[in-house]
Amino acid sequence: MGRAPCCVKNGLKKGPWTSEEDKKLIDYIHEHGYGNWRTLPKNAGLQRCGKSCRLRWTNYLRPDIKRGKFSFEEEETIIQLHGILGNKWSTIATCLPGRTDNEIKNYWNTHIRKKLLRMGIDPVSHSPCLDLIFNQPCQMKLSRLLLGMQALDNAELLKLANYLFSSSQQQNNPYFFHQNQNQESQLFINAVVSKGMTPFLQSTQFQTPFEEIKPPSFIPFSGDGKIVQSDLQNLSSNFDNFSNQNSHSNELEFHLPIQDYGNQQGCFSHYVMDYPPPSETTTFQSNNSTYLTYQSILTNLSTPSSSSAPPNSNSTSTAYVRDGFTLEDEKESYCSGIVKFEIPDVLDIN
DNA sequence: AAAGGCGCCAACCGCGTAGCT
DNA sequence: CAGCTACGCGGTTGGCGCCTT
To answer: What are the distances in angstroms from CA A302 to CA A12, A198, A228?
Structure first.
């Protein structure tokens, strides 16, 4: 003989709870504690099944529930844990005191998921969503290609970014990827899967293995797996050259993984700059009226601890800079028309 | 001002698992 | 150990309120 049935559903109320029902449940639990949800509603004088009472208590009435908007830190935690755990909402909730699994799940489905999709990131795999990437009007979203390739070391990624750009240059067409979306999608899939990067290109247009490509604008990266400032400057000047040839305005993003952290989520540096890139004398005003030049931002890369990181950013030092916008605006928008640096403290930049 | 669309979120549903007899 | 059910979790739904046309 097993346990007695949970409840007889006939005659039990469903739907939204009234304040009277809430009060009955709270009063009963305050007096007797919770548990034994089967008998609780009867003892508390509620025409509800135990399941409904438990849900109402754990998701809404519990005194330690934190209500209100999710903070930036909470959102980042959710994204990172979801990347590791998947849809284990209850497990994720244990890392966010005061938040319920239901609340996190709702927030994911209504906010974070859409935000990731807008960024071209598959919310399930946390990898670049190639269909989205290659169907966007401008295909210079390098970060979205690089984001899922964190297993590669920095030198390889910089070379890859450079190659992608160089290919566009050769085509003299910023929409190169768009026009070749099917081929390029397949190439990227192959590249990600193989991770060996050879042979990188298999299309009829480009037969040259990745490592052998030496376009005129090829950048001499340091090649030892570490990013040095000159690499970034070379890369940005490369884009400068491109912007001079093309009047299209856009933004450029780079995600450069941290070699030591391998595939661990969030362990990459993120660079976004206006496109065409600013000149060395271009100034940006942050929300505290501090003027920064493009050159000084580059210089900041070598001194991440001095950047204007938001509070409680424990894994990265972040500088958000955009003329006329506040930090909160920046956090909301994530990208678009900005200069944004997320500089992990462990990033090894000479 | 009204109607339709859309987003949000509390609540429900169904299934897997743990635990009781 | 088998049978049965409560519990907990993830997926889904439906209603409310806000926004757009």
So the answer is: 65, 32, 9
The second-level CATH assignment, the architecture, of A19-60 is Orthogonal Bundle (1.10)
List pLDDT tens digits, range A212-242: 222 222 233 333 333 344 444 444 444 434 3
pLDDT digits (tens, 9 = 90+) for A323-339: 222 233 333 333 322 22
A16: Cβ under 7 Å from strand B?
A: yes
CA of A98, C1' of C6: distance in angstroms: 25
Q: Is residue A294 within 8 Å of A275, Cβ to Cβ?
A: no
CB-based contact A203:A179 (threshold 8 Å):
no
Give the Cα separation of A259 and A320 in Å (integer). 24
Q: Which residue is nearest to nucleotide C14 (CA to C1')?
A: A15
A45/A50 Cα distance (integer angstroms): 12
Query: Distance (Å, rounded) from C-alpha A305 to C-alpha A346?
Result: 11
**Residue A215: closest CA among A167, A159, A173, A174:** A167
C-alpha A2 chain-centroid distance: 48
Q: Which fold has domain A72-118?
A: Arc Repressor Mutant, subunit A (1.10.10)
d(CA A320, CA A332) in angstroms, rounded, equals 12
3-state secondary structure at position A7: coil
Amino acid A3 CA to nucleotide C1 C1' distance, rounded Å: 17
Highest mean pLDDT among A39-48, A162-171, A289-298: A39-48
